């Protein structure tokens, strides 16, 4: 497999991965620089040795970005959009190689690796159009011969902290919008997936270079949580967009909040599908199984709970058990497999621990889990997807376990189902499977799902880039990607212009000299 990696790097014209992305003069030159080995969860082999940033490296990158911002913001937004269009073209040209790298480094199936690159391409297209639509409103002034309007200006440096499970798409969601808005970006990817980040940064940087744009509009900083902490505490970074666990989001939010900066938080989910007695059960089965085992249960939108009407509960359970017996687990680069590995051994231990906790609370497993052994699973990161019958209030059910464990919960009335669905601390994605209009509309009403995403006859997993993406409660409240999510990357300014010969005050206040 190391051959594949070198082929991919050659294809992307990356000779030295530690040189391919450097921004800032001092990067990696300090004697304190740590070099860490990165291993693939797919076969356990070492993929690369990557330099991790020191605090000095971080500072130098911020300085480079701050300087670049002063020029980048002067370029008209549609011209910035043109550069993003070219980045999209490069991503298109390299979709196969990048998608393969995502699959190998992160462990998701090849189809999902390609899908992730497609998401980057889609957001580039979206951002190009957006670059001509950064609209503000005009208002009628209460004073004669006055004009009032609002406009949006870029914020400056956008810090993007991303998680391992979407190692490239989340960066693109943020960076492409931020760039057309006139901001510059510093990306701190997950320390578990630096190679895909280096490849993307390299692609973007080449496009900026070809357009004679000064270094620093696109910056990458490889490092672990300490680098994320530097960013969260740094008042030179007006917006920190952080994707990851709720634990991480609480830390970032507190640090950014303490300096009255802005944060955009995309955190953990605990997503449920309600399967009503009026559901198409075959369709529901595909949605539920893809949602639970896709990306080995490591999507923020993975289906963790199925809330099933008592009249169809047994029948649907049998369908699930039968479907799970057909799931093929193995090398994600082999397109015959449905499910690849978890990201690392720690994730396997958390999965095993959650199964024990579930059993201790009374959970009854109808499909048993466990770690897979043998040569095909030599990385030690492969597990069996499993299903347990539980009560919604179990502590383990209230918690997001980032692994393919699916919980079944029975309900009687639609009101009870919605209460169960909402009865967890997280609020990302939710779904109802029904052909009954009343059930569907109740689920979508103010008395329905409390999540940022609520779907009808679609599972919880997977979203299109055109909508605003994000969730409520412990998911963090952030929205990124489509709709008007761009506004968070800009500052709004209200302008009032007096073209009269007097100075009337607002609210009719008199002040004569
Ligand atoms: P994680 O929280 O361990 O790490 C995410 C990123 O945050 C990494 O880059 C990490 O280095 C950094 N980080 C960790 N602690 C930090 C701190 N105190 N300050 C600053 N940075 C810090 O998450 P993970 O294991 O990589 O990803 C899985 C989690 O991400 C799941 O909870 C999943 O639901 C969530 N996620 C959410 C979304 C969403 O859009 N809502 C998308 C993808 C993943």
From TrEMBL:
| Domain of life (superkingdom) | Bacteria
Entry keyword annotation includes NAD: yes
Establish whether keyword Membrane is in the entry. Answer: no
Active site (record annotation): 266
Which keywords are on file for this protein? NAD, Oxidoreductase
Q: What SUPFAM superfamilies does this protein map onto?
A: ALDH-like
User: Domain Aldehyde dehydrogenase, which positions?
Assistant: 34-494
Q: What class of enzyme is it?
A: oxidoreductase
The EC designation for this entry is 1.2.1.3
Task: State how it assembles.
Answer: Homotetramer.
The family annotation for this protein states: Belongs to the aldehyde dehydrogenase family.
Name of the molecule in the record = aldehyde dehydrogenase (NAD(+))
To which species is this protein native? Mucilaginibacter pankratovii
């Amino acid at each position: 497999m190391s051959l594949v990696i070198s082929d991919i790097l050659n294809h992307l014209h990356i000779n030295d991965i530690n040189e391919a992305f450097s921004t800032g003069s001092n990067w990696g030159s300090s004697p304190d620089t740590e070099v860490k080995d990165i291993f693939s969860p797919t076969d356990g082999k070492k993929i690369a040795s990557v330099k991790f940033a020191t605090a000095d490296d971080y500072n130098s990158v911020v300085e480079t970005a701050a300087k670049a911002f002063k020029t980048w913001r002067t370029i008209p937004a549609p011209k910035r959009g043109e550069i993003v269009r070219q980045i999209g073209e490069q991503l298109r040209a390299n979709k196969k190689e990048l998608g393969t790298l995502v699959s190998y480094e992160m462990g998701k199936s090849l189809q999902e690796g390609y899908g992730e690159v497609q998401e980057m391409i889609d957001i580039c297209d979206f951002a190009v159009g957006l670059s001509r639509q950064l609209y503000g409103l005009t208002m009628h002034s209460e004073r004669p011969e006055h004009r009032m309007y609002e406009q949006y200006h870029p914020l400056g440096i956008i810090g993007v902290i991303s998680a391992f499970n979407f190692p490239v798409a989340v960066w693109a969601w943020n960076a492409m919008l931020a760039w057309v808005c006139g901001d510059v970006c510093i990306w701190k990817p997950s320390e578990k997936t630096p190679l895909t980040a280096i490849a993307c940064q390299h692609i973007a940087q080449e496009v900026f270079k070809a357009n004679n744009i000064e270094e620093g509009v696109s910056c990458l900083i490889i490092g672990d949580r300490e680098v994320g902490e530097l960013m969260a505490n740094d008042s030179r970074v007006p917006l920190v967009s952080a994707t990851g666990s709720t634990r991480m989001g609480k830390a970032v939010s507190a640090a950014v909040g303490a300096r009255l900066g802005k944060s955009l938080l995309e955190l953990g989910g605990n997503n449920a599908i309600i399967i009503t007695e009026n559901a198409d059960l075959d369709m529901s089965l595909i949605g539920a199984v893809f949602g639970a085992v896709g990306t080995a249960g490591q999507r923020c939108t993975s289906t963790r709970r199925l809330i099933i009407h008592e009249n169809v509960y047994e029948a649907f359970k049998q369908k699930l058990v039968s479907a799970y017996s057909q799931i093929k687990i193995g090398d994600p680069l082999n397109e015959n497999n449905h499910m690849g590995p978890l990201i690392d051994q720690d994730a396997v231990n958390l999965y095993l621990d959650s199964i024990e906790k579930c059993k201790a609370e009374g959970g009854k497993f109808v499909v048993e889990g466990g770690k897979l052994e043998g040569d095909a699973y030599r990385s030690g990161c492969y597990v069996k997807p499993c299903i347990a019958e539980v009560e919604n209030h179990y502590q383990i059910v209230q918690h997001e376990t980032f692994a393919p464990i699916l919980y079944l919960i029975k309900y009687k009335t639609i009101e009870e189902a919605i209460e169960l669905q909402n009865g967890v601390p997280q609020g990302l994605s939710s779904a109802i499977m029904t052909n009954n209009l009343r059930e569907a509309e109740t689920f979508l009403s103010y008395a329905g799902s409390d999540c940022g995403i609520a779907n009808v006859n679609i599972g919880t997993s997977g979203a299109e880039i055109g909508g605003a993406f994000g969730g409520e409660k412990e998911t963090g409240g952030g929205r990124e990607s489509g709709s008007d999510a761009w506004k968070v990357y800009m500052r709004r300014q209200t302008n009032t212009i007096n073209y009269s010969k007097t100075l009337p005050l607002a609210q009719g206040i008199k002040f004569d000299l």
